[in-house]
């Protein structure tokens, strides 16, 4: 989100600069020789003089403005995705150090533990604030063998999380799918 | 910081302005301000009349406001493109009154990263010093190998490299952030 915000902010600041400069140029041009300089705004003025509020184009514009505003508002107010999972300060070697595992690092650590379980062909791990979700693929076909892997995978993930000594160990959710072919 | 807080505030303000403009014009369009407004022209309202009547001084004033806004926007854009949160060189306060010692942040961060990388089980490390040089914060990112003993390595980094860094700047309470990540790639380094 921060990167998207930076891009949007750069575009917004450029738009503000352009609008400000154009307004200054047009005001000066209008004062000096009563003509437009860069933007021919007179057709827009004429359009506003003959358009009423109840026209369809106005309503469509309003709907678009509200929609854009709502999308932007929701995107900005949405809580940021967890990027760091705090390590247990009680296990710290030195006081006053803010140690945490990155979300990707935590996912990689759990994934490597899950892959190490016999019968697991592959796995993907998603880390949320309080939950780690493991989706593993069994090396064999059939739902029964895949289901039997659920507990070993869950144990491996929990053991890895315990080894990381997190401040609050997230819960583990495991889904195992059999090999497709 | 690339003006992250300013970016969010300005985008929130833009969102509120878009919604307010849409709701206001929409309300006029559906007759919430009366049937007369609904059928009136866009510029036939008190604001439009005011602008028309006071144009002699209003437009030059608007141009001055636009100049200020454009300059502020330019400052914002420059902060977006060129600002950094990295600290400058640190002034080391010694007990004696004479002399002045500065510590190049690059030298400190390189030494920290090198020490962390020298630990068995660490694939790579980088460090940076951020914030005000008078009150900096050390941020270290260490990439650990998947086979490492994470808890032991964490303690070693904290009691070793990070404690040494705190000693080097003469501040045992230097705010420090340690980000640990894990890689499945094996380091090619020979320990």
How many distinct domains of chain B?
2
Model regions low in confidence, pLDDT < 50 over at least 5 residues of chain A: none
| Arithmetic mean pLDDT of chain B | 87
Radius of gyration of chain B: 29 Å
The quaternary structure here is: heterodimer
What is the terminal-to-terminal distance of chain B? 36 Å
CATH class of the largest domain in chain A: Alpha Beta
What does this structure look like?
The complex is a heterodimer of chains A (181) and B (191). Chain A has 181 residues and is of the alpha+beta class. Chain A has 2 domains: 2-77, no CATH class; 84-177, Cation efflux protein, cytoplasmic domain (Alpha-Beta Plaits, 2-Layer Sandwich). Chain A is built from 6 helices and 5 strands. In chain A, the strands form 2 sheets. In chain A, strands 3-4-5 form a 3-stranded mixed β-sheet. The radius of gyration of chain A is 29 Å and the shape is elongated. The mean pLDDT of chain A is 90. With 191 residues, chain B is α+β, with helices and mostly antiparallel strands. Chain B has 2 domains: 4-82, no CATH class; 90-183, ANL, C-terminal domain (GMP Synthetase, Chain A, domain 3), CATH 3.30.300. Chain B has helices at 4-29, 35-38, 46-53, 55-82, 105-117, 150-168; strands at 90-92, 101-103, 122-130, 137-145, 176-183. In chain B, the strands form 2 sheets. A 3-stranded mixed β-sheet of chain B has the order 3-4-5. In chain B, a hairpin with a 6-residue loop joins strand 3 and strand 4. In chain B, helix 3 packs across helix 4. The longest helix of chain B has 28 residues, at 55-82. The chains are: A alpha+beta (181), B alpha+beta (191). Chains A and B meet through helix 1, helix 2, helix 3, strand 2 and helix 4 of A and helix 1, helix 4, strand 4, helix 6 and strand 5 of B.
